[in-house]
Structure formats: C-alpha cells, structure tokens
C-alpha cells in the first residue's frame, strides 16, 4: 500500500500462524505454517517465491477429508530441513474406525536451487492394515511480491490453463513483461486422482511398515537457459544441500561458549546468515530478509558484513564487488541515481521489470555510499588484500566524488538527501518510513535533510579511506581527506548538538533548523567516532535511561517524543542491529558496563523468540517481569543484520581488533557479560594464518589464552 510516497507492508488481518517457518536457497524461498502447509489466509505472506514472484500460494495436506493432528515441527539448526510430525484424527471409513493417533505422518521439506522438495513418510502403528487417502490441495497465483505486500495493480498478465499429466501439474502465467513463469508439481508415486487443484494418493498401510510419497515443486522462467523439469531426486538434492552448508560453514571461524543458550543464539544466527547469503556473479551477498526483503540491499549488506567481517572476511569482498559492479554511473531521476552513488536495492519480478515500482535498480539511500567506503577500509585492515582494493579504487574515488559533489546538495558541508524520483522513498536514511524524520512538534521537515548519523558515516569513511590513500601512495589525497574529516567533526559538533536534549539533533532540515528529537540515530554517532568524549558520555547515559532502554534494547525514538509509538516500524520499536552498533560505540568510548547491559538485554530477548531468532525489529514496550518482548506483526525473520548483531556484540565486548597488514590479533580491555564464563574462538583467520583462543571471565578481568597458532600471527592483550 502506498501512503505518503512510501511503501508499507499492509496488515489487514492477523497471522494465520504466528510461528511461520522459512526455507531459502539462492533466489527461492518458502514461507510455511507450522504444519508445513501454505495457507492463503491471514497476512497472505505464505507461499513459495522465486525471483520476486509467488509461484505457489496454496499447498495443504489432508488425510481423507480432515486436517492431520499437529504434533510438532522444527527447522533443523542448519536451516537445511523443515520437519513436521502429524497424526490422524479419528477416521470412520466403510463402517470401520481408524482410531486417532494410529498413523504417524512425518513431512520433511527443503529447498535446493529453484525447487521445493518434500518427502512424506507415513507409518501405521495399529494392529491391522488400513487404507487411507492423502489429499493435496494446491494453487499458483503468480503474484508479484509487492502485490503480496499490498500494492494494487491496474492490470495483470494472463493465467494460462494448467497442464495435467498422470504425475504432474504445470501452472503457467504470461506476465505483462512477456516472461512466462511456470510452476511444476510432480508426485511420486502416481496419484490415484490428479487434477488442476488437487491430488489424491491412496495408501495401503501394513502395520509397522512405512510408505513414502515425494512431491517436488519447481519454479521456472522462460528466459532461463536450463532444462525443464530439471530437479534431482529427493535424496540427491538433500545430499547436495547438506554438503553446500558444510562448505559454507568452513569459511567462518567457530565460536563455542560455556552457555548453551548463548550457543543456540550464535548457531541460529550463523545458520540464518548462511541461508540468506546468496552467490552473485560478483561473489557472496547477504540478502536482507525473508519474506519482504529477500534481495540485495546496499545498506543492509554492508551493515551485516561490518557485523561479521571478523568471522568471515570473504563476505566483505563479495559485498564490495557486487556494489562496485552496480554503482551508479549516470543520472536517473526516477531511480534517484547520480554518478558514484551506491545501490539501495535491486528487485526482480514483473512489477519491477515494468517500472510499476522504482526498485529494479534503485539508489535512494543517503548512507550506502559512505558505508561502502567504510567497509572498503575495514576490509583492507582485516585482510591486507591490496590487490582487490586497487581493483575497486576507481569505485572508491567515484564514491568520494559523489559525497562532495552530489551528496552535499546545498554546499553547507553536510551530506543530505532529497527525493528526486516521483515514486521513490521520502526518507532515505536507515529509518526510511515516511514519518520517521520529524520536528519536535511532530511536523515533517522540508528538505534537503541532513541526518546526524550520516555525517558520522562520512567522517569515519573519509578518515579511514585516508589511510588507504596513503597505502597506495596518494599522499595529497590522504592529507585532504583527514583535513576534511576534522573540519566535518568540528562543524558537526557546532551545528548538531542540542544542549537542552543532551544529544545531537536527529537532523537538520532544509532551512538548517534542528530536528530537536531524541532518537537512537545519535547513538550511531558513537560507533563512527564523530562524537566528542564528553558528548558521547551524555548520549550514553541518555540512551540507558527509561526513555530509550526497554530492558531488551534501545528504542529508535524516545518514549517522550510526540510521534513515539512502541509498535511502529521506526518510531519507538527496537531494532537489534541498532542496539548492537550503539553498544559497539559505547565500548569504543569506554562505557563498557552500559554496552554489556545492552548485550545482556538482546541475549535475554533472543530466548523468547521462536527458534531463538532475533527478528528485524520488535516492539519498544518496556520489559514486564518474566514476559517476553512484543512482536512486530510483519517483521522479517530471519533478517541479516539482526542475525549479525550477536557477532558485533561479542566482538565489541572482548575488544577484538584484527590488523592483517601487521598480522596482529588484539584483545583490548576484553570483557564478558555475567552469562558467559568462557568463550573459545577457533580458526580465526589472519591472512594465510589462523589461531585458536580461549577467553575466561574472572571477578575483575578476562584472561586470554592462546590454544593454537598456525603461522606468524601475533597475539596482543591490552588490559
């Protein structure tokens, strides 16, 4: 639904199931209820999706004419398999009774490439043979993801008649973009009856003997160069899925702690990241989140990588390569593109192809460009990969040029945004809701808008890129960038500080009036280092007050503000990544106890979420006794930068810094929260070398012990 020139996920009915299950591989993902079904109910988000289009909007299993009894379901820790246990209700058939819970029905589902695989194992634990019919009901609507989100279209393409054979049903849709989208359902064994909307499989079940049914659902588009159908059998595909996960996991260092619940959070977060990371032509890139943002986002990809760079430096190269390849080279008003600007998001799907939404390649992000520079500098320090930095140096120079020439719209020394596209985002910082930037009285400011944290990102980017310039022998550029960074810091302090708030203004509007709003944006200024020490300490105390800290994390907007709403998207909710970056900033300014308190808050919040998976955001309602956090109805889960939050929190707490240019691993004033007595990090890579370390918490400090070392790595502990 388009409101106020921005896009929202429409909510007009409650969840069909508040604990949906998610599977993903590459460009295909599925959202299911706990029974393993796809139900066209509730929010309507359930389905099997491929390249921005829903290829299956209904897939429901019945036994005879009834729903099976639900017993349990879970996603395996590596996210590779979704398993559901069901049983039969009491069934009367031909004068005979099959007592309830006589049959055990186990469904196992996973996605490999563009195909959903399902195996149904049914076993009779009764004393006599029984004959039952499993009924599958299905449909494919081929709606664009933005239609699922609530956008109304004036016209759609043509749904073609399904093609039915003895074992398969082929759904087809010819889009207005002239792409033929197809969904093939294939049943093994051959159903008793098969039509365009259902399949009936008859089973003779002998006591203690299992029967297997396999269902494959393949998604396909006519312009793709591959055979159709091209799916493997269930076992082959399952083996490939498991092998691929193991290979991906090897690229990350391993973390074990003395707290099994914390290990659960770590392991789920890593599995979610590995699921969201998609191989692009330029390398691995973490897609933002399922279901609404399962696509590359520049800001999200960079922030996720900054959270995880210490564990998996290869991810940094993939993200930088992808964004460099998609950096804007020309002006495009409808895409909010200018030369040198880094991508905000890219979308596939019929509506993007036709320009019905502006997001096929969209650049309406004010911070992605400076964050790109920040990541480039951090990547070099983490890897000493000079060759790669030299390859993307033209992109770095172009990004620097954008900051000075196009980012500073009115020439006042600050980077600002003003939407140029007629259909793009009104607000272009990380809080990009139409109402997320406002004045003290709740009114909306006129543009261009200079956000406080964006100035911090620019400051940090210029300061760190200055070092890269010196490495490449560009001394004059090094000197210029350092000077510009210091000038920006002084100007920022003068123009953004609001004495009566003890904080930085949320933003400056087009008239250079301060948006005197208490918002978490000021906390991100601590992460970038632009804040002066005395101001940082004031902001830290403010963020830990009841106005901001809920007991779980930091609200995006203080509870005292006129637009505060704890169950809104950006005006009072808690975003785990935001809290993690604020904690990292607090650590850098010596506010360690505050940071540890935030660390503990998010850990304890994770214990209440399904699968211990932190969602994109949750409600900003204050902690109430033994109750858990309040859910946000359409939050993505998993979400990449929420999954990465735990790794940044841990890195910040133990003071871990890696300088591959000097083969150094540094633990500076390491601390551990009281729920962690011991942390072991294995296979921490530094260039071609690696080490294993153990951290142990004592009453007044943390001890660091070298367990294993391969190569010339130097370990330094500063206490």
TrEMBL record:
Origin: domain of life: Bacteria
Source organism: Methylacidiphilum kamchatkense Kam1
Domain Mannosylglycerate hydrolase MGH1-like glycoside hydrolase: from-to ranges: 365-603
Residue intervals of the Putative glycogen debranching enzyme N-terminal domain: 23-214
Protein name: Amylo-alpha-1,6-glucosidase
Short name of one Pfam family: GDE_N_bis
